[in-house]
Structures are given as C-alpha cells and as structure tokens.
Design a protein that fits this description.
Helix content is 41%, strand content 16%. The chain is globular. Strand 11 and strand 12 form a beta hairpin. The mean pLDDT is 97. It has two domains: 236 residues, Type I PLP-dependent aspartate aminotransferase-like (Major domain) (Aspartate Aminotransferase, domain 2, 3-Layer(aba) Sandwich), CATH 3.40.640.10; 95 residues, Aspartate Aminotransferase, domain 1 (Alpha-Beta Complex). The chain is an alpha/beta fold. The structure holds ligand TLP. Keywords: Lyase, Pyridoxal phosphate.
Length: 348
C-alpha cells in the first residue's frame, strides 16, 4: 500500500538537488575544522541567524543536550515548559548528561508567561539550586506547532538578562515559526543566546541540526559534541544537503501550513474529533479524541488500515504533521478515508 505518512516531518526524503550536492561535495576532516562544506554550512547558518558562530550536530536532540551542557553546571536548575521536547522526548538527557534538574512551567499554547518564569527563578539562597538556563520551544511541538508570540519572547529575554540567565531556544521548527510570522529567522533568534534548529524536518535534509550562538559558546559546545561522539569527520556529505535545506526549502513551508489547515478544518467536522483551531498555525495538528471512545493507539490503527500513518500525541490526543512529501490531494484522500471510518456510532 502507498501510505500517506502524517507521522512527522522527520520522514521527509532528500530532494534530487540534495542527492546531487551530496554526491559532489568537497569534504575533509571536520574534527580538524577542515571540511569546507561543513564550514560553509556553519557560516551560512550563523549569518542567517545573526549569530557569531554555528556548529553542525547529528540531531536536534544532540543539539539541545549540548546547549544545556554548555550553559549549565551539574546541580543547577533549568526552566522549561512542561510539555517541551527536552523534558518529554530526550530520554532524561538533561539529568544524565548535564546533571541538572528541571523546573517545569505550564504554558499557554506552548508559551510560558514571563511572570511565571520570574516566579520560578531561584533566590540566592544557601538551600536552593542556581537557575542557570531558560529554554523556550518555537514552534512548540506538543502544543500543536504553535508559534511563541514575539512580545513573549522579547519579555522573556529581557527578564532573563535582568537576572543574567541565558536563554536557549529549541527552534527545531523555527523556519515554520518565521514563515507563520512572515519575518526572517534572525528576528526570532535575537531573543535567544543559543538556538538549535533542525535541517532534517520540514527542510528535508537527511540528517542533521545546527546550533548557533556566540564564538565562545560554540567553542565550548564543540568539546561537548566531541565528548558525545559527534565529531563526524567527512560530514560535508551531510552538510551539502543541509546547505540546500537552508537556502531553498524555507520558502515552501507555507504549502505545508495550508495543507495542515485544510486537514484540520476537515477533521473538525468529524463528530468526536476536537481541535483548537487557534493552535493550527504551522504544520502540526493535535486532536483530542476523548469523545471517540477509543484510545489513541486504536485510532491510529484504524487509520493505518486505511493507508494513513499518524502518531499519538500523549493521552487522548493524536498528532498529524504535514510536510514536503504530502500534497493537497493526499489531504483530500486522507480526509475521505477518515470520514468513512468514523461515523456517529463512536461518539459518547
Ligand atoms: N521531534 C520528533 C520526535 O522526537 C517527537 C517529532 O516527530 O516531532 N525539538 C523538537 C521541538 C522536536 O520536535 C524534535 C523532534 C527535536 C527537538 C529532536 O530532533 P531529532 O529528532 O533530530 O533528535
């Protein structure tokens, strides 16, 4: 069967142009700083994000973890949104690798209120850990691909500066945020000291993410990347696809956002499926299926039988993600199939 794969934008395949660029890439040993293609990718990323330096990493998870390690010391505390990727899907890495503990804040559509952040910052007290980092996620995955409003980002950053605390942005999908806001990524990145963004999601590169920040931050982060086995030698073959991802792919993300809206509007009309349409801003849709009287796993299995792949989103939610491999006609086909499965008999 030819599946319509709406599990994640991580399933995107490299374009022909990326494959050609990878084949022809000029490479060297990146641990010696001698891979011209990696250097080109890093320089391009730093410039695009308005930062001094950049570092190519194996994955978004590796990039986030290295940033936490670089900003903190063991025994510190970091502030995170309670459903953020770093706390939910990174295998407890902040505890194991950085030795830090998490102070979680409930956000609204993924955005933490700066007054809640202020209240969570620790006092200079002999009993308390030091608050050494604030992490924001933009777009916010589990909140439904929501974009953090610019005034909240700015207020968070200014608050952090008052307390001399760095801000890290998990910008795995920052280009989706920039597309939604219709601004360049450097406008968003200015409210963070470090940003991690992924090349291998909506931008279609096969492997890799990038961390951007100051020169001294990146120099320190490079040692942690090496420690974690991320010294990749002739990684220019991967960076070559990343350069095309950065330069060519952001301009088409609007298509994914339009497809997500079309899908969400159709899903909303199916009795028992609830979507907060205000959260449908980019390429992710989180649906509440509590009223369908079935688990997220049962729901996904029913769709799978009809040739549609999706992922659970935790509890009674399921997630649909649009991307380069999904055309408008796939959305129409998927909606027809889903409508045919769920009729009124499932609703409580
Ligand atoms: N997210 C994946 C899964 O891990 C859940 C997905 O399918 O959405 N930050 C954010 C906000 C992410 O959504 C992800 C990946 C990462 C970091 C980690 O990136 P990778 O998968 O490259 O380690």
């Amino acid at each position: 069967m030819n599946y319509i794969d709406l599990r994640s934008d991580t399933v995107t395949l490299p374009t022909q142009e990326m494959r050609d660029a990878m084949y022809n890439a000029e490479v060297g040993d990146d641990v010696y700083g001698e891979d011209p293609t990696v250097n080109h990718l890093e320089e391009t990323a730093a410039e695009m994000f308005g930062k001094e330096a950049a570092m190519f990493v194996t994955s978004g998870t590796q990039g986030n973890q290295i940033c936490v390690m670089t900003h903190t010391n063991p025994g510190d505390e970091i502030i995170l949104e309670e459903k953020s990727h770093i706390i939910t899907y990174e295998v407890g890495g902040i505890g194991r690798l950085s030795g830090v503990q998490a102070k979680l804040i409930r956000g609204t559509k993924g955005a933490m209120d700066p007054s809640d952040i202020k209240a969570a910052i620790r006092n200079d007290d002999i009993h308390q850990p030091k608050t050494s980092l604030i992490c924001v996620e933009n777009t916010h995955n589990r909140a439904g691909g929501t974009v953090i409003p610019m005034d909240i980002l700015q207020n968070t950053y200014e608050l952090a500066k008052n307390y001399d605390i760095p801000v890290h942005m998990d910008g795995a999908r920052i280009f989706n945020a920039a597309t939604y806001l219709n601004i360049p990524v450097n406008q968003i990145a200015r409210y963070a000291d470090s940003v991690m963004f992924c090349l291998s999601k909506g931008l279609c590169a096969p492997v890799g993410s990038v961390v951007v920040g100051t020169k001294s931050f990146i120099a320190k982060a490079r040692k942690f990347r090496k420690m974690l086995g991320g010294g990749m030698r002739q990684s220019g073959f991967l960076a070559a696809a990343g350069i095309i991802a950065l330069e060519k792919m952001p301009s088409r993300l609007n298509e994914d956002h339009e497809n997500a809206r079309l899908l969400a509007e159709g899903l909303c009309n199916i009795p028992g499926i609830k979507i907060d349409m205000e959260t449908v801003q980019t390429n992710i849709i989180v649906c509440d299926i509590a009223n369908l009287n079935m688990s997220a796993d049962e729901f996904s299995s029913k769709l799978y039988e009809k040739g549609i792949k999706i992922n659970g989103g935790g509890g009674t939610t399921v997630r649909f993600v649009t991307h380069y491999g999904i055309a408008r006609s796939d959305i129409e086909t998927a909606l027809e199939s889903i409508k045919s499965i769920f009729d009124k008999k499932h609703i409580s």
